[in-house]
Amino acid sequence: MTVLGFFNYWVVVILMMIGFYCVIARGNMVKKIMGLNLFQTSVFILFVSAGKIVGGATPIVREGVEVYSNPLPHVIVLTAIVVGVAITAVGLALTVRIQEAYGTIEDDHLGDDIDDEED
Amino acid sequence: MIVAVTIVRVRDLFAAGMMFAIYSLLSAGLFTVLGAGDVALTEAAVGAGISTILVLAVLTLARRYEHPTGGHNWLALAVVLATGAILIHATLDLPEFGAADNPAQVHVGPFYTENSYSDMGIPNMVAAVLASYRSIDTMGEAFVIFAAALGVFALLSVRPTRDMPGVRKRRPPRRPGKSPEGKRP
């Protein structure tokens, strides 16, 4: 129960909260998607940290290595990375469409046209 | 050390989009340190490569500069800090980092570490698990990517017209089409 034993988890939490703040507080949609990616990456780091064994090697079978890291979290994270980039692509495509339709990608300005023309 | 640098870079991210590529590359380095070579390779290729290209492509179409929001969003900051405090409190219950007798290492993990080579004949355990033990899930992942590609093409292939059904029927935009110019009045 040392501080070092939890340092990785704290880093994950800090990164996660930075991404969270980026998602909810930023008006720019590209920034929001970047925040989502930050959040994702912090979750990946948490998973890979869970599979780490001190002194363990990358899980590729070879001579002279006794301890390997746990390969299962790595597999999950690989899948998640690829799905994450799919999400990013769809989100950015939506952003492009919003830019084409409304001329802005800022949350605060999306209603400007509506207000001007309805009032 | 790499972790600390990563955090510093992430704080810069709010100012520059390219910082995200550096962040991905640093996290790939962190994955290498944590003994996850495959994950590091994928993160470097996908995070630092493809994501950056996508973001840059969008930035060529959209406005380059973020509109200044003026001051901090204190409510959001409070929510984030509260959530972070709860999570930090929760980490105290987690097993110590890197110990060989963690719950994650003693249940099913050793089975794959010991048997995947004799079952599959592939020295890379991650590839063996991904392509053999979990091949159905990997196929589902391929479906997800296919669906995402379909979605992107469906979204981008629609020509912006004035009489598109839905939200824009009653209020056509001032600048239809791809004309990302000028400031808002």
Fill in the keyword field for this structure:
heterodimer, A: 119 residues, mainly alpha, 0% strand, disordered C terminus, B: 185 residues, 8 helices
Tell me what the structure shows:
The complex is a heterodimer of chains A (119) and B (185). With 119 residues, chain A is mainly α. Chain A has a domain at 27-53 and 67-106. Chain A is built from four helices and no strands. Residues 115-119 of chain A have low confidence and may be disordered. Chain B has 185 residues and is mainly α. Chain B has a domain at 1-64. Chain B contains eight helices and no strands. Chain B starts with a helix and ends in a 28-residue tail after the last helix. The model of chain B is unreliable at 164-185 (pLDDT under 50).
Question: What's the helix and strand layout?
Answer:
The complex is a heterodimer of chains A (119) and B (185).
Chain A lengths: L2 H23 L3 H23 L19 H32 L9 H7 L1
Helix pairs in contact in A: 1-2, 2-3
Chain B lengths: L1 H12 L5 H15 L3 H25 L12 H18 L11 H4 L2 H12 L4 H9 L1 H23 L28
Helix pairs in contact in B: 1-2, 2-3, 6-7, 7-8
Rg over CA atoms of chain B: 23 Å
Q: Given the structure, what is the number of helices of chain A? A: 4
| Rg of chain A (CA only) | 20 Å
* Mean of pLDDT of chain B: 69
Note the beta-strand portion of chain B: under 5%
Average pLDDT across residues of chain A? 74
How is this structure best summarized?
The complex is a heterodimer of chains A (119) and B (185). Chain A has 119 residues and is mostly helical.
